[in-house]
Amino acid sequence: MSTLVPLPSPPPKPPAHEVDSLARDEEAMATYYGRVAQGTDITGLLEQLNTKNAERIDRLESMSSRAHAAIWYPFTQHHGMEAKDITPIDSAYDDYFQTFVESDKSPHQSQLRATFDGSASWWTQGLGHGNPSLALSAAYAAGRYGHVMFPGNIHEPALSLAELLVKSIGNPRLQKVFYTDNGSTGMEVAVKMGLRAACDRYGWDASKEQISILGLKGSYHGDTIGVMDCSEPSTYNKKVEWYRGRGYWFDFPLVKMSHGVWKIEMPENLQEPLGSDLEFSSLDGVFDVEERLQSAAGKRYKEYIRDTIQGLVHKQGMKFGSLIMEPIILGAGGMLFCDPLFQRCLADVVRGHPELFDASAAKPAKGHPQGGVATSWSGLPIIFDEVFTGLYRLGRRSSASFLQVDADITVNAKLLTGGLLPLCTTMASDEIFRAFSSPEKSDALLHGHSYTAHAVGCQVAVDSLQAMIGMESSGSWNGYRQDWTATLSEGSRARDIWSVWSHGLVSDLSHAPTVDGVFAIGTVLSISLKDMQGGGKSTHSVQSVVPD
């Protein structure tokens, strides 16, 4: 039940140039407040507000114990967990949660605190909590559609989002958009697409032989049973009873800043084929992929990758159906910043040497090192998991642009709706799409969810993406770009590598005695701390919303 208390308009302010205007204004306002207090039930309203607030605090105070009794949390070992370990969140706005904190209930000490959302709510926040424009978008679509079933139908938000993605994502291969509910299920679809296309081209029968994937160590593509098998054994999957681990995962060089210098660290077990560690004066130098392809490191990377795949296929008899990568940063695996040159070389070897995967496969046409015509896949379908890294998380619309590789299949989620609603898109080329075309329904991509292409989520995604595209085109982030460009040596060409975290801050952190390494790109700041007891190191990441 709500209460409405109308208040009379306050008296007009006296002209500021009159000598006694301030005193007259104070006297008029004092009279006004007295009249309001006597002529309205403002006191009763304030009492109601106090009562409501007390009830709210009581609810917040009991939430931890109630949740402890009723909730099974994700990614949480409940053994030894107590109610006091659970943080009640009262509300959220911009970069912050308003959280409830136990106190001595002193009248001068609030039990509600602003708490920085350091993980951007599992990397979903792009425009901040409580964004009023996105809330209005959701309300509009909820009122117009609610939930409508999608197969064989179309509604404007789903069509608008699909067309916006195809037009703006910057990859001419991607022409079809498949909707799912979250990154994990979107990757399930991507794997189905990639494996079908490879088996269709090479005449493999996956019901009679194992078709695996190529990927990177430390990668993780979701918690559903299928994509769990696309990652090496880890804490997340090795104790899942159906996990089998169907693939090969390359170890790779890592990028970090240490003591003010950008370094590429080679894995100890790969220093013989890959060479020694590398140093760069700027992060732009690390991302000068086209120039680095001709370097000794680029040649060693390609030779190692090619020899490894050849051994896996021709000596061990493995068959691969797709290459799956998280471009630049492997998120859930521990904020692992992969040398972009290694990922570029992996994609080039896969596309440039299809005979590695099938002896009868034709090599790509000259002038098209990534495979024939611009939209044709070669070697293996390349799947980019941009659930975390896509849609401006790293400062660009697509993290694939850092590698200058156009994937055959790309998955986006998280920032897609600015953190307001769950939604995922799996985009694919027409060639991948045609691999499912047949008179038999059983050959179709028989995958979907009750809430596929939910109209509310699609409308929010359209408005969220348009807002971020607008900020990019209007130069809203130019100040951050200039901060990072200022560190380049004279004559160096800027490659639009920047972060909302200042270069000075990153450099200062890299000199801290407890820091093993640090990096920042886009809204991501990752800090690897030394274990002062000698037990290794741990990585902590902090992310912010995209400033407007």
Outline the structure in words.
The chain is an alpha+beta fold and 548 residues long. Helices cover 35% and strands 17% of the residues. The chain has 17 helices and 18 strands. It has helices spanning 21-39, 42-70, 120-123, 132-144, 156-168, 183-202, 225-228, 271-274, 283-286, 289-292, 296-315, 340-352, 400-403, 430-434, 455-474, 478-485, 503-510, and strands at 89-93, 96-100, 112-116, 174-180, 211-216, 247-250, 254-258, 261-265, 278-280, 319-325, 329-330, 336-337, 382-385, 409-412, 424-429, 515-521, 524-530, 537-543. The strands form five sheets. Strands 4-15-14-13-10-5-6 form a seven-stranded mixed β-sheet, with helices on both faces. A three-stranded antiparallel β-sheet has the order 1-2-3. The protein has a three-stranded antiparallel β-sheet with strand order 7-8-9. A hairpin with a 2-residue loop joins strand 1 (89-93) and strand 2. It is globular, with a radius of gyration of 28 Å. The two termini are 37 Å apart. Residues 367-372 have low confidence and may be disordered.
